[in-house]
Every structure is written in C-alpha cells, then in structure tokens.
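Form P-L/3: holo structure prediction, ligand 2'-deoxycytidine-5'-monophosphate.
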Amino acid sequence: MIIAIDGPAGAGKSTVAQELAKTLGYQLVDTGAMYRTVAFEALNAGVDLGDEEAVAKIARTLSFEFRFVEGENVVFCNGKALDQEIRTAEVSRAASIISAHPDVRTAMVEQQQRVGRGRSSVLEGRDIGTVVFPDAEVKAFVTASAETRARRRLEQMEECGEDGDYQEVLKEIVARDKRDTEREVAPLKQAEDAVVVDTTEMTIEEVLRVLRARVEAVRSPRGE
Ligand code: DC
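OUTPUT (holo model):
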C-alpha cells in the first residue's frame, strides 16, 4: 500500500503523514527531507547550487533510509542520522533551489521509488501522487491558506525558542510557493484523483479522520 500526501509547506502535511504512518505501522518517507539532505551535502561540499550536474551526482550517490527513533521519523543518509542541521533557513532555501533542477529531480524520484517500493509506505512531498507513485492507492493533497501556514510556522519557531517575524515568514512562504508551483519540472499541483483537504479551518484530528476513511475504503472496498 502506498499513501501519497502532497501539498505546500506548513499545511499540516508532515503531522498527518507521521500520525498515519505510526498508527498503520508503515514506513514514512519524507521526500522534503531527502531534498534537504542533498542541499545540505552540496553546501558542505562547497558545490555551486546552480551546477545541476554536480548536484545531481550527489543526489544519485547518496543512500537513504527512514526509521522511527523515539517516536520521531528520522532520515539516515549513508547510515548517518540527520536532524536539525537540515531544518535551517539556509538549507530550506538551498533545497528549494536544487529541487528545480530536472536532473536532480530525476535522481530523487528514483531514490524515492527505491525507498518506498517493497514496503507499505506513506510518502509526503510535492509530486508523489503525480510523478513518484502515480498508482498510489490513496492520494491526498493537503493545503491551507498562506496566512494560516505562516502563523503555524511562527508557533513552531516559538516552541523551538526562535524569534520570528510574521511578515518575514509569510513572505518566505509565498516566495517558496511561487518557486515550487512555477518550476517547469514536476511543479506542485494536485493529482486529479487526489482528495483535497484544506486544513485552514480543520484540526489535525479532523484531517486524520478524512484520510483514515480513505485508507479504510481501499483496505476493505466492500466494507469487510
Ligand atoms: O517539505 P520541505 O519543506 O521539507 O521541502 C523542502 C524543499 O524540497 C521544498 O522547497 C520543496 C522541495 N520538495 C520538492 O520539490 N519535491 C518533493 N517531493 C519534496 C520537497
């Protein structure tokens, strides 16, 4: 079973994907973390982020794995756990830049298919239902208004003891949305057969109820 969860940053996608994977006992493939890892490795190696071939080579050669560690989903790159170091503003910007390169995306789609294949998985990203697993049994497009996403991001930053400015965060989200939706290769868009969940006025529990109902409908199509 493959569950594809796509949508923009801050829509609540990660939280619902994590809850769903945990309760179903599935692997959770956070494809954003994979792009972030490639960006992080490119920055560390001093590679020019605009050098498509050099970044694609990094994307092809890394080995990825996901495991739950103390209840948190962790990406392992070449056997090493990566956590806060791939969540910085610098890596966010770099990930958005490198994910626009067609050769990098080709390499990453193969990596994501390799990780997801063979195990029941929840995959979260931007192009899972459209490109990576177009035959996924369940597809959801989780979204929310930019203002709501900015407020949620600010709350997260405050929980981590970081100071954030609402207008700055909103500006960054709008800029990322624009880059992610307007790029030529695999732009962020919903699959035609995805259930669209607008979380602006919804709690996580309400979102989960919608998605669990979808999963159940696939697991027991005749209500068995
Ligand atoms: O979901 P995130 O913020 O961790 O994603 C980091 C970046 O990677 C973001 O700019 C979008 C990009 N990305 C992508 O292009 N395709 C995916 N499947 C996942 C993420």
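COMMENT: Strands lie at 2-6, 27-30, 64-69, 72-77, 80-82, 121-125, 138-143, 195-198.
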